[in-house]
Amino acid sequence: MSYLIAVLPDRIQAEEAYTSLEKAGISTDLLTIVGRGYKSADEFGFVDPAQQAKKQAKFMAMWLIPFGFAAGFTFNAIAHTNVFTWTGQFGNNILGGLLGAMGGSMGSVFVGGGVGLSQGSGDALPYRNRLQEGKYLVIVNGSKPTQNKATPILRQFNPETLQGYTEQF
After folding, report:
1. Total Cβ atoms within 10 A of residue 146
2. What is the pLDDT of residue 112?
3. pLDDT 10s digits, 124-153
4. Eight-state DSSP code of residue 166
5. Hey, which end of the chain has fewer CB within 10 Å, N or C?
6. Crossing angle of helices 88-107 and 49-79, rounded to 10°
7. Separation of alpha carbons 44 and 57, rounded Å
8. Rounded Cα gap, residues 40 and 34, in angstroms
């Protein structure tokens, strides 16, 4: 799937660009306006980076917490570390496992969440920021020839940015 996305400063220009594209013979099924009064970023499918970060952190926690527990338990069993003498050797091994699980949970939050925030959104975050500033996106969804036909029409409106994307599966 290929997209051509133009960022326009206000609703009037977005509507004029949409109308010009429609007059040029581009089907309205291929055209979308994203902004106030039209589709939202979520409705269009722009990924929310915070949501992606939470999802990535949960996924990593599913693996890191059990492995952290096993690693902490095993390390304590091999090293014979006695933090609390009243718990005995097995209790200290359990304590080491719990500390390892805590380390795994911290890793999932900091690494999983941080990676999700920094890389999970792609170009969606800049577009979301522009929408929050009150700008509008005119999106042409179609083949390369359709995008080539739409590009000069959209350039007439002096968009802030005009960028093409191709989704890879």
Report:
1. 18
2. 73
3. 667 777 888 888 988 888 888 888 888 898
4. E
5. C
6. 160
7. 25
8. 6
Assigned token pair, 147:
């995008």
- The answer to whether 8 touches 137, Cβ cutoff 8 Å, is yes
**Residue 58 CB coordination number (10 Å):** 14
pLDDT (0 to 100) of residue 87: 84
The pLDDT value recorded for residue 31 is 87
At 39 the three-state DSSP class reads strand
Task: Read off the tokens for 91.
Answer: 């209790």
Give the tens place of pLDDT for each residue, 10-56: 889 989 999 998 998 988 888 888 888 888 777 776 655 566 677 77
Sorted by sequence, the CB contacts under 8 Å of residue 136 that are 6+ apart come out as 7, 8, 9, 10, 11, 13, 14, 33, 34, 35, 36, 38
- CA 163 to CA 151: how far, in whole Å? 9
Dist. CA 67–CA 85, nearest whole Å:
25
